[in-house]
Amino acid sequence: MSAPRQLSLNAFIYPSGHHEAAWRHPDSRPERIYDVTYYQEIGRTAEAAKLDAVFFADGPALRTDVRHNAAPGLEPITLLTAIAAATTHLGLIATASTTYYEPYNLARLFSSLDHISGGRAGWNIVTTGTDLAAANFGLDRHPDHAERYARAREFVDAVVALWDSWEDDAILLDRAAGIYADPDKIHPIDFVGEHLRVRGPFNAARTPQGHPVLVQAGASNEGRAFAGKYAEAIFTAHQRLSDAQTFYADIKAKAAEYGRDADEVKILPGISPFIADTEAAALRLEREFNELTVPEYGIKQLESITGTSLRALALDEPVPVEVFAGAGDVTDNARSRLQVVAGIVERERPTLRGLLHRLAGARGHRVFAGTPEQVADTIEEWFTQGAADGFNVMPPYYPGGLEVFTETVVPILQERGLFRTEYTGTTLRDHFGLARPRSRFAPEPVTVG
User: Fold this and answer.
1) Of 19, 35, 168, 444, which is most buried by a Cβ count within 10 Å?
2) Could you give the 3-state DSSP secondary structure of residue 91?
């Protein structure tokens, strides 16, 4: 009899919190966002609750309006190495761009993190959606969507081949014979593509996980196809159960089309919960944060999604639905987020102020205010109704927002048999229930009988 299906839960770390005004709230700690011990404390909180992983977003450009919000500037792979030293089981997932790295150096960074942590690394694969990055790398323009994804496919193929280039038993460590490794089990990859060329072999042995877990967050049509082929975990944003169910079924089907086991692809929507003893108190807490927002900041964020100026609107005027015409034509990640916002406008017909408050919580991810039981009910519903394999938990404020989730919601999920009470493995693959991949260079196993 197989074990019951278990939730995956990650803590998505955004230094002050996922609400855009979190840094202004007295329960957040913006003065500590460059203090490594702050993140180690958060990691220990997540591990004490037996969460699967912590996750960091990143981008190679200053995208935040630093006049009105805190700028999280620490490089995440380096930071996760420090968290690895303060934890023993917690998974460690970092974002890194296929557009602004080269395959060999990125393969080394994540391989090192996986070795240092004993097999807890995950790579969130992004192509970088902002054109602000190009000039930081000496480029005249940001590559277009199709070009970025074409490079990304080659990039992942090359990186995984590098990680595979040492067979698992390549290291002999034969002191008597003076032989450290068998060169016949270490392979050049000779990768030649339209965008990239990488000879190999890699300069480090295969990692404890075989290779770090491959994570992806693009929801565009191209992003979904990419996820179906490569991703082992997918972070996504949905407001409604029905939309999440449609996305879930689509990604699982795309994985099957590539000959993959759909159970080896974990779908993890974002949820940003305001939690209090009563629903009324949770809603008051959400309003408290929304009242700290700076409209100028929110308008800039909204305009970056719509591509249209909304400055002629008064804050208490309804947002015209026409601003979102064509939102269904999803061709890149920015427009996929536009679909989420368009859905809110079409269903709720908010004022500009109301829309800014709706988006302030988690940039289009689902914000939920309620009691611990109500939050657990929502998580269970999505988990059991074909919408999610788990969640990327996005506390509105840090560190208290994570603490209240782990202290009040996680025990309810554990009591319902939906989430572990102890780690049953040591690697991120163990936590996600993913198989360890074989090296492509390893000989096929011999079948007896």
Assistant:
1) 19
2) strand
Residue 443 in domain = no
| Residue showing tokens 């779908």 | 267
* Per-residue model confidence (pLDDT) at position 368: 95
- Give the separation between CA 406 and CA 388, rounded to whole angstroms: 19
Segment 106-128, tens digit of pLDDT: 999 999 999 999 999 999 999 98
Angle between helices 295-306 and 333-348 (to 10 degrees): 110
Residue whose structure tokens are 């988990």: 383
User: Based on the structure, what is the number of domains in the chain?
Assistant: 1
Domain harbouring 395, CATH code: 3.20.20.30
Examine residue 353 and state whether it is found in any structural domain, yes or no.
no
Residues 28 and 397: beta-carbon distance below 8 Å? yes
Q: Does an H or E element contain 179, and which?
A: strand 179-181
- In tens, the pLDDT along 195-214 reads 999 999 999 999 999 999 99
Q: Considering the chain, what is the average pLDDT of its residues? A: 92
Cα separation values, 38 from 44, 53, 178, 392, 408, Å: 10, 16, 46, 20, 22
CA gap 268, 9 in Å, rounded: 8
- Record the pTM: 0.92
Whether 201 is in a domain gets the answer yes
